[in-house]
Amino acid sequence: MKSRLLITLCALFCGALSVLAFAPFGYWPLVLPSLLGLYALLDKASPKQAAWRGFGYAMGMFLPGLWWIHVSMTYFGGIPLPVAFVLLACLSAYLALYPTLACWAFARFFYERHWSRWLLAFPALWLVADWLRGSVMTGFPWLWFGYTQIDGPLKGLAPLLGVQAITLALLLTASSLWLVWQSRRLIWLALPTALIAVAMLSMQHSWVSRGEPVKVALVQGNIEQSLKWDPEALVPTVRKYQDLSRANQDADIIIWPESAIPALEKEMVPYLENLDKAMKVNDTALISGIINFDMDERRFYNVVLGMGLTDLDGKQSYHYQQANRYNKVHLLPIGEYVPLGDLLRPIAPFFNLPMSDFSEGAPVQENLLAKGLRLATAICYEIIFPEEVRRNVKADTDFLLTVSNDAWFGKSIGPWQHMEIARMRSLELARPLLRGTNTGITVATEVDGHIIGQLPQFEDGVLRVEVRPARGMTPYQRLGSWPLYGLTAVLLLLALWLRPRAHPWSERG
Length: 509
Fold this sequence. Notes:
By secondary structure, the chain is α/β, with parallel strands linked by helices. It is built from 16 helices and 14 strands.
């Protein structure tokens, strides 16, 4: 009984250790000892033991790694902290089912102590579990290990095969180190050395062509979430964004964050028309978040509008339902729509948050135009879905744009993890990232995800940067995740084929 408790605590600790590799901590090498701890727990485990230990590891990762979600539940949703803890534990337990299944399958079908179980089977099974977690029931692909390496030596794999190529490289590296320990053969270190070499060569390659610098002003209004949807706060909120923007009229593009104008577009048409004209006078484009209620469809949409000098000849002007807009596609469960709403909304205020009844936009939409430049847009939560962002980036896309309102999560680690994910999209697609937020973290990055400008959290201000647009296509942008899917299938099939061919030193313990 004591040994079982000790093993469970070790699993929880190893999972929790991995959280320190993610933002805001950024101790990216800790992924490897975290995984090696899991390998030690799985080495001679039965399928039942492996499942329980994998579950413990995943709970150790998800519960502290996603603890920031409780802020929206307790501070804005009216849920007592103990109840929020239970709900978050339930979410973590659900997410933990996927790595648990991977660990069970690993012990059930790859029990021979052969190099292929670690170097082929386990990495493949873990990736399959990650992909399932990122897609089933709308998906939640948070805390993928690859994100920890945005500033690490393996980051160059992202433009080739996406963030999960980095996850695979980390798993292969951990497996190689484990095989060195088991077999006392240093030859296994050749694999991680080769992976780092490929990543470094990729970072030396220029995937895109660059244009002339563009002056961008990202406005961070720092509007308190409690005032966000207060009708009496509308005028002060809009005035604040105008005042912050007034001193930056020389910028080519001014960006306001998600729902910066906290009102329905239909009600703000005269204001938006005047704003459009004022921006044109100053030869400036303005991008802003707003809410639209489509009268014909009777649906709400979370929208980003492009106004001012959108096309270079200045012929386009704002009008209601104009084409130069982006409607959010991937909605946040509970926050933007409530599954089984009729059942859940009466239970607690958390299930009846303001503006929690949106509809989805089209999966593929035209890039926003701003002063003749094309911006592929993602609103808040959408940026965590790599394939969904990728399908809206074309060869002639100049920038990635993401607008957000992370005020829901206060002074937690959530906004920092969110920014880390957004930076990875920039690296995958080799596009400068413009990230405008209400309370932070407002940043601009280069094509490799390197931050070139950042505003502090919970301060109003304007981030002024000059960024060169980029056009072209990375291998990941061209092919998406399909090559990695194929590689994962090959690894799994090879592991199955090699399963009975154990080395003499690899007798089952």
